[in-house]
């Protein structure tokens, strides 16, 4: 009666060095930072959509002599339709640049995480879970 084993049954005992712990901590910090950046990107994209909607509504307005209140900080300042449209376009461009910068940072973090995953999985195999929980 010969029993065949398909893969390791018991969890291997792998020694975790200080360097390994540093890599695991770096992975956790970068994962957390990436989540924060993605949330910030979503918030900015929502704001960008709001600016686009305001710009579209402003274009549909047929009364050019109407002064449009535009919020700057906590204050609303009235501007002509053309000035307000220019301010909306400038705000949209600024936001688009911010989103692009954030997306580049997320991409860089994903590269670091990919490298760390390779190193950590190479040492620990199935004894470590580096996949994000989708909850």
Automatic annotation (TrEMBL):
Decide whether keyword Nucleotidyltransferase is in the record: no
UniProt entry keywords in alphabetical sequence? Chaperone, Coiled coil
Concerning SUPFAM superfamilies, the annotation shows:
Prefoldin (SSF46579)
Read off the InterPro entries from this record: PFD_beta-like (IPR002777), PFDN4 (IPR016661), Prefoldin (IPR009053)
Question: GO CC terms on record?
Answer: cytoplasm; prefoldin complex
Q: Quick check: keyword Cytoplasm in the entry?
A: no
Q: Which GO terms describe its molecular function?
A: unfolded protein binding
- Its domain of life reads Eukaryota
A GO BP term here is:
protein folding
State the coiled-coil residue ranges: 34-112
Quaternary data? Heterohexamer of two PFD-alpha type and four PFD-beta type subunits. Interacts with URI1; the interaction is phosphorylation-dependent and occurs in a growth-dependent manner.
- The protein's role, per its UniProt record: Binds specifically to cytosolic chaperonin (c-CPN) and transfers target proteins to it. Binds to nascent polypeptide chain and promotes folding in an environment in which there are many competing pathways for nonnative proteins.
Family membership noted in the UniProt record? Belongs to the prefoldin subunit beta family.
Please give the PANTHER family that the UniProt record associates with this protein: PREFOLDIN SUBUNIT 4
Task: Identify this protein by name.
Answer: Prefoldin subunit 4
